[in-house]
Amino acid sequence: MTSVVILISGRGSNMRSIVDAGLPADIRAVISNRPDAAGLAYARDRGIATEVVDHTAYADRAAFDAALAACIDRHAPALVVLAGFMRILTPGFVEHYRGRMINIHPSLLPAFTGLHTHRRAIEAGCRVAGVTVHFVTGELDGGPIIAQAAVPVLAGDTETTLAARVLVQEHLLYPQVVRWFVDGRLALRDGRAVLRGDAAPDSAALCVPSADV
Ligand code: GAR
Known about the structure:
The protein is an alpha/beta fold and 213 residues long. It folds into two domains: 1-97, Rossmann fold (3-Layer(aba) Sandwich), CATH 3.40.50.170; 104-213, Rossmann fold. It contains six helices and nine strands. It has helices at 13-20, 39-45, 61-74, 91-96, 117-123, 159-182, and strands at 2-8, 25-32, 49-52, 79-82, 101-105, 128-135, 145-152, 186-189, 192-195. Strand 4 (79-82), helix 4 and strand 5 form a beta-alpha-beta unit. Glycinamide ribonucleotide binds at residues 8, 10-14, 83-84, 104-106, 141, 167, 170.
């Protein structure tokens, strides 16, 4: 089975959706940069190894990333899943996991990278919002898009109501993308995400990479 390590910083609801999906994957560890991340307890309860690499204990980003990579690599994952992992990563770290590290971001990238995506989408008058799963590159919330799901922005929406609507899609989309990867159907080729075979019908994704690997 394909080995997976999941990185979180907080609540861990996306990590939970992946664990609960019962994928044919060996989830070797859940790692957090925050000792108080709520998601750690859930992983522990499910019998998954947990680790903390506390970023406040390191002098700079490079030192933290080196310690984090050492921790990840002890579990020898084929796939690293960033699930609400709120750290900017150094180029060397990103390069080390090229083609085998994915991230979820709560906007329709390339719009609204960074923080407060839902508030900014409402302020901009967007009529649709959504979520993107992408391979990680050196660009913050950038990198080849694997799949997206869209939701409407409704009159009267607040940051909270829109976030909740998007989160429902996050929990459908992320396990689906991880499944594609562990099934050996998803890869990064020539700077693009490619998916072998059909993304439908069990997919929540509205947009998927071109097929024919
Ligand atoms: C999720 O909405 C995820 O898309 C977002 O953080 C939240 C984590 O929630 N990630 C980013 O903003 C990455 N730039 P969770 O801990 O419950 O999965």
